[in-house]
Amino acid sequence: MTLWSGTLMVMVYRQLKRFIRARSRVVGSIVNPLIWLGLFGIGWSSFFRGRLLPGLPNGASYLGFLAPGVVIMSTFIGGFIAGITVIWDKEFGFLKELLVAPASRAAGIVGRAIGDALSATLQGAIVLVGAIFLVSGLNPLGAPLALLAAFLTSLVFTGLGILVALKISSMEGFHLLVSLIMMPVMFLSDIFYPLGPLPSWMKAIAMMNPLTYAVDLARAGLAGAGEISPEISLVALIMISIVLLAADAKVFEKTTIS
Amino acid sequence: MDEEEVGEDFNNPRLRELGVDRATMPTAVEARELSRRFGDLTAVDHVSFEVGEGEIFGFLGPNGAGKTTTINMLITLLKPNDGTARVAGYDVVREPDQVRKRIGVVFQDPSSDRELTGYENLWIHGMIYGVPRSELAARIRKLLEFVELWDWRNVLMKRYSGGMIRRLEIARGLLHDPSILFMDEPTIGLDPQTRTKLWEYTIDVRRERGTTIFLTTHYMEEAERLCDRVAIIDHGRILALDKPSNLVKSMGGDVIYVKLLNGSSELLVSKLMERGVLLDHRPAGSTLMLRVFDAPTVMPIIFDIANFLGIKISEVSYRRPTLEDVFLYYTGRSLRDSEADWRETARVRARRGMRR
Fold this sequence. Notes:
The complex is a heterodimer. Chain A is mainly α. Chain A has one domain (3-253). Chain A is built from 11 helices and no strands. In chain B, α8 links the parallel β7 and β8. Chain B is elongated. At the A-B interface, α1 and α5 of A face α4 and α5 of B.
């Protein structure tokens, strides 16, 4: 095994190990989406029952529409937060250790991103299983596609989180960023509502949001009701994640501490 | 000629000028006019020095003197604005990867992963330094036993005390068998027993592995006990550099500290100069530091002159010089009442908080 792949693997290992150890975080990350599904979803679902929902196929339930979105939402949140914790690592510890090592920095940071993405996907998988049990009408055969969408989502947003973390220098920015980025990104996607009836400006922004493609991909698998062709979504997500990971590697190569 | 004297010869700048160079003592670290600025602040100001292979070399100075900034440049974390540095024979700016392979670093603040065990931290380190998998387990065991943490190997590091974290990080710094170990304030915030223990480890490392050790400290005793040579650094400049014993010897005679209740210290000093009893003098905070040949004979003269000039002396003391006095002489401030004390307290608290 070369130093490059060794570094990559060991960083994946580290992130997974940390994720599994942080039980409270795991539980929290699963409970939160189930609340969205169980309370928010059931609430709106009862309100919409029996009505024609514009943008959805006839007879579709709102809960069935929302479930794939919530699975992706949980991996989005998990991945982005994991990526942003690089700030913590950078300022107070472990990343310094990586910075003075002869190992490839690119391998280190990409390994970290993949490890975080796998952790977030694991979390999404648990939500997915919960959703399949709780929500009627989801197609279990679509689970692999949904999981792939979840993995790509977390890769994209871990990559974005890391990039943001490497660019900002203080912890103060952390909470501001989280609330400033996460909420709009979720509401400017198709997690909660279909794109079809949206005003054109909102739709235009949503079409530039990677989350939209991921949710649509998961929805195509689980509910058979995507609005975008799955091939386009897949290519878009893969390309965005490659670009972001490459940017992470490039920025991290040049990182110094002050 | 015993070993100690050989060392002295190599480090004597006059001998070097005469062409007696350190050819037989290879250089581990070499800094030439190294400088680093942060905005208007010059943290390190054209610093030059050499560290020989197998030497324990110390930077002694208060917080904010430029010690950590210098280390960060030597370990390739920070680019110098000016000057060059070679570590293990490689340029820190042009060949950082070569440097990184050959150095171990113990940072001032813990840099291990608290959510992982000590063993896992070492294992990850071994992997990112390319330690052969076949040797890794044996090396980890040997080093964990060396720092007496083998029994703690499977405990999460958030349960470790500050001293244990340090020990583990020393083991980690040695895992890839570096030729130079950098330690930034290795015993800051530790209790005296743990500190003594860490000094023993440090000396053992040099003896058993021949590792060159570069450390920074603001503890006088640490510099005196550990270092072959010490550079006194303040405001980013090296003010003196020699063996601790030579630094003390260079003070000559005794040191007298006089605190005046009223009157001009300049006047007192000039009269003492006229009498020819003063080697040198420095203000040291509110106190006057006087270097003399023999304090017991000079003290009555000081009182006489003060009396004559109508100056009232509130406190006087004298002693054989120590490294502390050398430091005071060069920097004009005492390390003990250094303004940075609160920072250290805060750091200690942070460490306690970390181990809960």
